[in-house]
Design a protein that fits this description.
The protein has 274 residues and is an alpha+beta fold. The protein has 5 helices and 16 strands. The strands form 3 sheets. Strands 9, 10, 11, 12, 13, 14, 15 and 16 form an 8-stranded mixed β-sheet that branches. Strands 1-2-3-6-5 form a 5-stranded mixed barrel. Helix 3 (128-134) runs parallel beside helix 4 (150-163).
Length: 274
């Protein structure tokens, strides 16, 4: 009887492993169901151009660091992200990519929204959007009409954090801690731990949260889509009056003049006081 029980336990374990592996395989579609395209150029880490489309291809679900100044500053990781994508699509994939679309095919700027796949050296089909996140060279950026792979991207971002890849490689570097009132233009585009006492937590409209420093010179913002994806069970309002550190890339809110970090996940927040 004991042997029979052991056999069924072993069988259950094997079936569980097979099922888990089959679940992973489901995330990669058949190549025949994807649209093949040829890359003409790499614009940056999350935008490419192809010969098949007059419009640029914007990778769904990710936001890579900037390589050109605009509403956001040039990032210290922008070129690394660009080079990573260039290496994968030009050197490895020989410019051949496969596109998968979501509910909405175009964004507000007229760009094509796509999940971009390529074949690696072993002939395996790789989801580039996910790979960039796993290497810490992008942060998640979710929208309701392009969210069918959101769970995959959440796991990829957590993995980058756990492996200390890309933007998390200096996560444990105490020399990057700066008081919120000591931030300067030199910090723009750089990864920092910003130390601040939290004055208030507000919800701005229906889709944005702000954790505001005591001096109101800095805030940590969270879009509702990322808040719903990462902050389940985390009470951000409990941070009021607490000494906290926030991890992320420093931007400047041109509208308010405040320094900001656009947050994504609870592991970017460290509570210092008990």
């Amino acid at each position: 009887m004991r042997k029979m029980s052991s056999f069924f336990l072993l069988l259950l374990l094997v079936l569980s492993v097979v099922y888990a592996n089959s679940q992973e395989l489901i995330t990669i579609p058949d190549i025949e169901n994807l649209q093949k395209a040829k890359v003409s150029s790499i614009f940056d880490g999350d935008t490419i151009n192809t010969y098949q489309y007059a419009e640029s291809i914007r990778l769904i679900g990710i936001d890579t660091p900037e390589i050109k100044a605009g509403s956001k500053p040039i990032s210290e990781y922008g070129y690394k992200s660009y080079q990573f994508v260039k290496d994968r699509l030009i050197n490895v994939a020989n410019r051949n990519v496969y596109l998968e679309f979501d509910e909405d095919k175009f964004d507000d700027y007229g760009r094509v929204l796509a999940y971009v796949y390529y074949e690696d050296e072993e002939g395996n089909l790789v989801l580039l959007n996910e790979e960039i996140l796993k290497n810490g060279l992008a942060r998640p950026l979710f929208y309701e009409d392009t969210s069918k792979k959101q769970e995959i991207f959440v796991k990829a971002y957590i993995q980058a954090y756990e492996d200390r890849k890309g933007i998390f490689e200096k996560y444990d570097d105490e020399s990057l801690v700066v008081e919120s009132d000591a931030l300067t233009q030199k910090d723009l585009g750089r990864m920092r731990w910003v130390k601040a006492k939290v004055k208030d937590v507000i919800k701005e409209g229906e889709n944005y949260y702000k954790i505001i420093s005591e001096g109101e010179d800095f805030y940590y913002g969270i879009r509702k889509q990322e808040f719903d994806a990462f902050f389940d069970g985390y009470d951000i309002y409990d941070l009021v009056e607490e000494e906290v550190m926030f991890w992320g890339e420093i931007w400047l809110d041109q509208r308010t003049g405040q320094y900001e970090i656009l947050g994504r996940a609870p592991f970017e927040i460290k509570r210092l006081s008990n």
